[in-house]
Amino acid sequence: MGVFFIPFNSFEGLSFLGEFSKEASVFFFIPGMVILFVTFILRKKIIFPYKSLLFQVLVLFIFWCFLATLLNSPSLIQNDFKGTSGIIRFIRQYLSILLSTILFFIFYYNVLNKMSFKEILVSIRNVFLASLIVVSSYSFFEALISLYDKTNLLPVLELFNYLPFVNAKIHLGGRLSSVCYEPPFLAEYLIMISGWMFSFLLTPKGIKKIIPTLLVLALAFLSGSRTAFIVIFIQFFVFLFIILRKPRYRNHLFIFTSTIVLSLSLLVFFNSKRIIKGFKEKIETIDFKSNLTKNVSNQSRLGIQYASLQVFKENPLFGVGFGQQTFHNRFHYPSWATLNNYEFRLFYKNEKISNFPPGYNIYVRILTETGLIGFLIFLSLILLILLSCLNIIKNKSDEKNVLGTVLLVSFIGFFINWLQIDSFRIYGIWICFAILILFDNNLIKNNTIYKDVKSIDK
């Protein structure tokens, strides 16, 4: 249920959960995590992958985030912005990263450890497919209303309000958000599930083989999100490159390509002007120069990242402390970003608005807050993840090969997407991370805690 409800975040939410307040999946992950730890206390049953090099590097990074902040304690005490002190900001952000990367991860790991790799592949992607069907159904009516002015369908769209965690609405500007709070969240969701949906091309038979991939590609195009459009197509080309190296998958690719070509030919034949116009608009959105000068949102993003880099230059080794970049950034915003920019005036520099401005790039954020040391640890984790995925793909077992391909395509999407978001609160990354660690069979066999559990059971 937690995996199914990942995209559902358009409801009111619970404010006391902070940045997790609108995350429907948290309402299932937190109880599951609590049950896991209660079981551990009562029955001493929990598996902890402490021997995994991947997990060790992750823990090292989390520890360095704490140590870098401790080294910046004099400035931490002085930091104050939007009614929030540096210490409070650190506590909130550190609890958030601990919950996302450690506590939830341990929950995912213990659940997935009870399943075979085939069960993991089939169950997770079927749950993602079920959620994609709901997301696509909503998006279908949303597109007809916002893109084709079929306002008489609004009552149909409002029927989705009967689903939990949904607040049906239409976004202006022709962008789609579906059951998500905003279009960027729909983009994140599509990037998260794309590898799983592409894998249907390799295993089942019939129409189910093609439909999931078509839905993802269509939503990426229609969503109006430049991020979804670019990242998902990169993921798809990576996927194609991998399977073209496997002769047994080339027939699957031929069938899918033929279907795509036939579908596009029919669309162009019946509605050529609209299709050509749509593609032209997408190409124009990738025009960096035009977006920089005409798009306020992009000016804000680049301005904030520029300010972060200036802060990093002043604190290159240890950074300024975890969660502290905004306290320092506000003195370095460039005039070309703030001039005639309502976002800085109304939101980012307005102390009456309690929300902190996002950093818009996790790599720049890590450089700014944890310095070169933290950045190198984080980069090492990314390289280890990619190398581990490549090793899995070399496996001759079909289930492991397909699952390894899913993981590599997913991680590439996550890492590219991190260039424009600065949050660790992306559930798909840590679910995939748990699966990746499970591939180390020697870890499970040699895990002393696991052996102790078996003896206790006896």
Describe what you observe in this structure.
This protein has 458 residues and is an all-alpha fold. Helix content is 68%, strand content 1%. It has 20 helices and two strands. It has helices spanning 26-43, 53-71, 73-78, 86-112, 117-148, 154-158, 183-198, 211-222, 226-244, 250-285, 288-294, 296-314, 325-329, 335-338, 342-348, 362-393, 398-417, 427-438, 441-446, 448-457, and strands at residues 80-81, 84-85. It has a two-stranded antiparallel sheet with strand order 1-2. Strand 1 and strand 2 form a beta hairpin. The protein starts with 25 loop residues before the first helix and ends with a helix. Residues 442-458 have low confidence and may be disordered.
Provide the fold topology.
Elements: H1 26-43, H2 53-71, H3 73-78, E1 80-81, E2 84-85, H4 86-112, H5 117-148, H6 154-158, H7 183-198, H8 211-222, H9 226-244, H10 250-285, H11 288-294, H12 296-314, H13 325-329, H14 335-338, H15 342-348, H16 362-393, H17 398-417, H18 427-438, H19 441-446, H20 448-457
Antiparallel strand pairs: 1-2
Helix pairs in contact: 1-4, 2-4, 2-16, 4-18, 5-8, 7-8, 7-9, 7-17, 8-9, 9-10, 9-17, 11-12, 12-16, 16-17, 17-18
Structure in a nutshell:
It contains 20 helices and two strands.
Principal-axes geometry comes out as globular
The low-confidence runs, each spanning 5 or more residues with pLDDT under 50, are 442-458
Mean pLDDT over the full residue set: 84
Number of H- or I-type helical stretches: 20
Kindly state the number of beta strands: 2
Strand content: under 5%
Q: For the terminal residues, how far apart are their CA atoms?
A: 32 Å
**Biggest β-sheet, characterized?**
2 strands, antiparallel
SSE order, as H and E? HHHEEHHHHHHHHHHHHHHHHH
The portion of residues assigned to helices is 55-70%
Strand order of the largest sheet: 1-2
Radius of gyration from the alpha-carbon trace, in angstroms? 23 Å
Structural class assignment: mainly alpha
